[in-house]
TrEMBL record:
The keyword Membrane does not apply. This is peptide chain release factor N(5)-glutamine methyltransferase. Keywords: Methyltransferase, S-adenosyl-L-methionine, Transferase. It is an enzyme of class 2 (transferase). PANTHER family: HEMK METHYLTRANSFERASE, MTRF1L RELEASE FACTOR GLUTAMINE METHYLTRANSFERASE. Its EC number is 2.1.1.297. Residues 82-173 form the Methyltransferase small domain. InterPro entries: DNA_methylase_N6_adenine_CS, HemK-like, N5-glutamine_MTase, RF_methyltr_PrmC, SAM-dependent_MTases_sf, Small_mtfrase_dom. It comes from marine metagenome. GO terms for molecular function: nucleic acid binding; peptide chain release factor N(5)-glutamine methyltransferase activity.
Length: 250
């Protein structure tokens, strides 16, 4: 019922919200509605049908080249604000695996004086991120860089990332929606799901200052192994944060 209401309202030709009690056929674009129903029946997520997904305070453009921003990833923004409450600071922020740009752009809106760099290995993902940057923070320049991690070594105050962290086995257990409509490269972190954490730990010491903080999302049951990886590079864990499901997430 909820999905049907969303589809009706997304294909509505009137301004007010459609509810079943006052629903009239002439209030929707029937052709668009039928097309949306057909696509949804093929397991295509509503976000991909209408190229829109809400994250933090904003509505982001999404397509098959990027992951849908997840509600649990908002925890990254919350924790950054907790540790860096002065929003007028001239911070240097790096977003690794930016995808749709949801983290970089949300932080750009929170920290108006920040200098932000966002990287991704996918050219198609960076095109989506640029679309969102143009729409949501056109007054703020974000430097988008195509690379696996980052080539131009600099130091940053804040590093955020929602990296690929599913193991091969975990990916095989995901839904048809995910496997058919989200980029595999943004989901799988090697055989054990930890490949990215090993890679980033190897170069973090070059881009961290004594006051830098890394905010990195982790998968379920990965906390112990990820902490071990970072500890081996003498990077201290300040906090292990749980999401709304009480799972270790950051």
């Amino acid at each position: 019922e909820l999905e049907l209401r969303v589809l009706l309202n997304k294909t509505s030709v009137i301004d007010k919200e459609i509810i079943f009690s006052n629903f009239e056929l002439n209030s929707i674009d029937l052709k668009a509605f039928h097309q949306a129903i057909k696509r949804r029946a093929n397991n295509e997520p509503i976000s991909k049908i209408f190229n829109e997904k809400k994250f933090w305070k904003y509505s982001f453009f999404v397509n098959k080249n990027v992951l849908d921003p997840r509600p649990e990833t908002e925890l990254v923004i919350e924790k950054v604000i907790k540790y860096f409450p002065k929003k007028d600071e001239k911070l240097k922020i790096l977003d690794i695996c930016t995808g749709s740009g949801c983290l970089a752009i949300s932080l750009a809106r929170e920290y108006r004086n920040a200098k932000i760099t966002a990287t991704d290995i996918s050219s198609d993902a960076l095109k989506v991120a640029q679309i969102n940057a143009n729409k949501l923070c056109s007054d703020k320049e974000i430097q988008f860089v195509k690379c696996n991690l980052i080539k131009n070594i600099d130091t940053y105050d804040i590093i955020v990332s929602n990296p690929p962290y599913l193991s091969d086995l975990e990916y095989k257990k995901t839904t048809k929606e995910i496997q058919s409509y989200e980029p595999k490269i943004a989901l799988i972190g090697g055989i054990d799901g930890l490949k990215f954490y090993r890679n980033i730990a190897n170069f973090l010491t070059e881009i961290l200052s004594s006051t830098s903080i890394v905010f990195i999302e982790i998968g379920n049951n990965q906390a112990k192994e990820v902490m071990k990886i970072f500890k081996s590079k003498k990077i201290k864990c300040l906090e292990l944060a749980k999401d709304i499901q009480q799972l270790n997430r950051l």
